[in-house]
């Protein structure tokens, strides 16, 4: 594969550089210089040779020529294109005064309703056009100041509407999520119910076992406590019986109670009444002996 950009070129053996002749300056074409450019048709037109319609925006390889005409020091350019059907030449040039293009020959511009030739805007002078533009700008500024509050109110209404729409969308999304979760979560709810039932049964069984173990422990503790109480009550009962036999029989004599004084401080001193003493305990009888006295007695 050959290189696209080469440093040396091939010259055949029969090459004769004297045969290459340059055109002298006096023989070269004079006039405006043309430049090849790529452009799009600035307006829709109809070819006068074959009647072909060329729509606006179609691309052409054109030649641009700078004319000697000027408008307020603005150069006017002429463009040359070829018809796509009959290859006849079509020329048009710029129109800086009307900010448009003018078709010269080879084609006819199509009718456009906004370009009425009877329109006064096309016939007004530069001064009239400047005055009209200034009036339009002043009117636009006045309308902008006047409509400032209306625009603010409109923006507030739009913001409120956007907030309402956002809230409605959020509500719809939440409802759809709940519906979808409810449809998909049927089996999950059944599984969760089964797990809950199993856990409840295990908890109830554990509670029953704990209650049974506590009842058994309390019964064992009560049995041990009863045995200890029974052991403690046996010597206590014997001691109480012995004390009851040793005490004298109770007396049912009347005991006079001391009256309390009605006025504190006026107490009458009285001699204490002698309480009857209980009778002495009976002396146990001596066992029979041989008639001999005791060695410790003083009655011998």
UniProtKB/TrEMBL annotation:
Ranges where the record places region Disordered: 113-164, 178-300
Low complexity composition-biased segments: 214-223
Bias kind Pro residues: ranges: 275-287
The keyword ATP-binding belongs to this UniProt entry's keyword annotation: no
Keyword terms of this UniProt record: Metal-binding, mRNA processing, mRNA splicing, Nucleus, Spliceosome, Zinc
Compartments reported by the entry: Nucleus
GO annotation terms (biological process): generation of catalytic spliceosome for first transesterification step
Transmembrane segments: none
Residue sites binding Zn(2+) per the record: 47, 50, 83, 86
Family: Belongs to the CWC16 family. YJU2 subfamily.
Protein name listed in UniProt: Splicing factor YJU2
Source organism per UniProt: Cladophialophora psammophila CBS 110553
